[in-house]
Design a protein that fits this description.
Blueprint (H helix, E strand, L loop, with lengths): L3 E12 L6 E12 L3 E5 L6 H8 L7 E6 L2 E2 L5 H11 E4 L11 H12 L3 H14 L15 H14 L4 E5 L7 H18 L2 E5 L3 H6 L2 E6 L2 E6 L14
Parallel strand pairs: 3-8, 3-9, 6-7, 7-8
Antiparallel strand pairs: 1-2, 1-4, 4-5, 9-10
Helix pairs in contact: 3-4, 3-5, 4-5
Amino acid sequence: MEKTVIDAHNISKIYNPETIPVYAVNNVHLHLLEGEFTALVGPSGSGKTTLLNLIGGLDKPNEGNIYINGTDITKLSAGKLIDFRLHNIGFVFQSFNLIPVLTAKENAEFIMLLQGIKKSEREKRLQQLFKEIGLEDKTDIRPSQLSGGQQQRVAVARALASRPHFILADEPTANLDSVSASNLLDLMEKLNREENMTFLFSTHDQRVIERARRVITLVDGRIASDSAAVPTSIPHEQVVT
């Protein structure tokens, strides 16, 4: 039986609601099943990042409800929401959000420490991940000594290491060369296939779009199209972030 991971009902994010309302997300309904590999595309300002932040509980909608694995996260207190995110959601931020004083390995390990995962299991996961992202020789280096692409790969490793129910990734390949992007997508597809991990990407990268099995296009905060298969062609203005 297919399991629903994300069920967002008629959600809206409104700025300046008391004066001149601006709808960053406008009455969106989104239903994702476990194991989906989905790309969220759309022009700059279409609401992609805002929608990811709402689904991930980093922001709250003005209207609507968001159910993650059956839990309405819009009803959770701040403390319970933090705990829920910790054990259910993996984030890949466009700005990396690595902790400057920690090494690459410590950054990737951080969420697992908060989850209370045993050291032996943490070491096993990190060794495998750093090998797969091609940074096994950079584990003891701090973010300031890494390139943008290397920081991006560490951020992805951090999100994957905790084995969350699903991953929200905002432009995960934006700073990567073709080889690194391909390897990273190979890893994500492997986790999706072998562990049924669900992925939702916000992206303008055609490399991600071509691998996605479902493409959702946002325009002006609304879902303009939603396909279970990658379109043969996507208008250029719809994939520019």
